[in-house]
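hey so i finally got around to running the thing on that chain from the lab meeting. sorry it took forever, my laptop kept dying and i had to restart like 3 times. anyway pasting the input first so we r on the same page abt which one it is
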Amino acid sequence: MRSLPPSPWRRRATATLALVAVSGALATGTASAADYERIVNGSFSTGSLDPWWAGTGVTNRLVGGELCAAVPGGTTNPWDALIGQNGVPFEAGQSYTMAFDAYATRPQPIAAVAGEGVSPYRQIAKHDVSLTTTKQRFTFTFTSELDFPDAGNAQVTFHLGGQAASNTVCVDNVSLIGGVKPPGGDVGEPPKKVQVDQTGYVPGTPKRATLVSSATTPQAWSLKNAAGTTVATGRTTPKGVDAASGDPVHLIDFSSYDTAGTGYTLVVGEESSYPFDIGDDHLDKLRYDSLQFFYHQRSGTPIEAQYVGETYARPAGHINVAPNQGDKDVPCLTGVPCGYTLDVRGGWYDAGDHGKYVVNGGISAWQVLNTYERAKLAGTADALGDGKLAIPEKANGVPDVLDEARWEVEFLLKMQAPDGMVHHKIHDANWTALPTLPHEDPQPRRLSATSTAATLNMAAVAAQAARIWKGIDPEFSAKAQAAAVKAYAAAKANPDKIADPNDGTGGGAYSDTTFTDEFYWAAAELFTTTGEAAYRADVTGSPHYKGRSLNEGGFYWASTGPLGDITLALVPNGLPAADVAATRARFTQVADAHLQRIAEQGYPAAYWSEDGGYAWGSNGQVANNASVLALAHDFTGQAKYREGVYEVLHYLLGRNPTSYSYVTGYGDRPVENVHHRHWARQLDPTLPIAPPGVLSGGPNSALQDPIATRLLQGCKPQKCFVDHIEAYSLNEVTINWNSGLAWVASWAAEKAGGTPPPAGCKVQYQSSKWSTGSTAYVTITNTSTTAWDGWSLKFSFPGDQKITQGWSATWAQSGAEVTGTSLPWNGKVAPGASVSAGFNTSSSGTQTDPSSFSVNGSTCS
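ok and heres what got predicted. didnt touch it at all, straight out
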């Protein structure tokens, strides 16, 4: 198996622009003996200014290893021009010593201030100094009367304003030492030692929890109902020290108890879990909440109270209404010659910032559309129909999930340049402050250059959309298909146009250097939609064909080959049945590897990386890996894969070593302070926390932001997490992580409606229709415990279809009744194995797929 590609992370600015009060006297005291450094990157030796920010009108630059701030003249007060660092921890009653080097182009006074960065802006200390043109070292000591032990909303700032003339002020070697609590590696013990899914467990599935205990012998556990009555008991299974978390863990298995109810708790000695339910209502709710997320992320339209409530309502962003400079006529980035502007209003904001990125939008829109297409092929799309989401299009006769996805697809089409290539992204010229609502963003907007990756993303999604909308909106279908065809041809002509990896100001770079996976994905979608031989040749000639790029590392925005595999394995397409079976077999092979990992883990994340670490967006990867398990169940009918999906969801919803549910609004301890520019209550109490159903990025052992660096040094991979708005490498939210969650939540809700059907057989029937006939593919799975030595499939056509040609079986038809009998080479089917066959039909009337099947006389699911 090839190793996981480089971590899909991106840098994000987190400049909170807050005024600090200037009243109060400097406290005095003795420096602590403990040399606990509170400032991150105070010597600027990292080669960047992160996490230092600049206030309005001030521009920070890294010059000769120093932070040099260009300060405007004509300001009234010292605090009218600021530079600073957020999230600095202080402890009440403790002594601190602050020191820094500073000088200015013109002599002027400045103030070093420690205090609260949000209302009521309480001050801890303030020290005035006079700068000259010669670098000086300044030192002062104070005692804090305020308590921000885990950083919270405290900050250190320099007040540089109040001068008539503009100036340049440079600082270096900024240090803040003191306190008794180390600022790294100690963010408090998780509140629970019995970790459970804080929402619920589905009846008929395994129910497991994790106990943190160094005991080497089994421990007694009890399951209590909401009244506190013990309803089940047992003993734990010690598993030793878990590698990913560092915890000594025991397994608690209470699968034998299956009575639906609410408010259950697991108790071991003095330790008790958070309460949880046994039932499946929470999954149906999660299906819709995770999809509702995308309406909140819409750009170019008001988010209306009638759909989301007053708390989350906001005006339209980036529609050329001041202070926005808008997305109506966006020029290209300086140095990117294009000679035109584009109207790129609409689409989804990618994450906590105001950028819109084609390579993130591609996988996100595709997963939302595939959620529907897979359900339609499975005959379960009613749950995703019109009126299921709270969106403006909820009564237009089109499934809401498609209406929501179309908002992004339309944007992707707008990003196409006249030559057919697609611009990589559009975002602000500089990072906006945190928080900033979209309609308050004053930054100019810029198109980045076109790229091969973006062009193929759009081609793939547009081809998928053309297929799905063909019978819903033929005009839109034709428009999408034409754009896809043009984009694919343009990518062929420009096969190696890489997005600038240094284009990371104001938005993430999202550069990718390998395009064989995107070519395969786009060709798979175009072939499946059009059936054209040229696309078929590109599919079958790809090194990714038949699942070769799918591995335990999974897929994400820069590794998209498996998306093509999913389409080719699900949607009837005319490829050889053996090739489709090989692709499906690859999903079961990788799913088996995930199940093996789940069995080894103390907290079942189904996550793998070559070095054992967890990367930026690990929770999104966990969700995508769960979808591989889900598809393995679809392809085989084997219960073990269905159970694996629920095990992974348990991890996301609370059965993990942090005691957090990583989905907002779910469980007794959900994450609240996700990195987002308008779900920002932690920084501004007038703003909301995130709505329910939003997936946090999750543990990231690379610690790629200042809050993570300060608080989590030495953390074990699964414990590298803190619920902090400025911990952007841990707690960011993105459309491509939520699309993975929405896909899995929808699948899990669909499969949770009762226990699986009795063992026997399963038949999956898929067809591609035209006006006078169809091509059908039938997959028959032996779900019994006994091998078949030959099989006979029977069903009836609801319409007037007549079989004209068949393969992989002997087909016979009498009236509407059809019998398919195995051939000598495919009659032996082991338990859990599948066999595929198919046929062509002719028809002069309505074509409806059969819905009832039997094999060897037994009715199948």
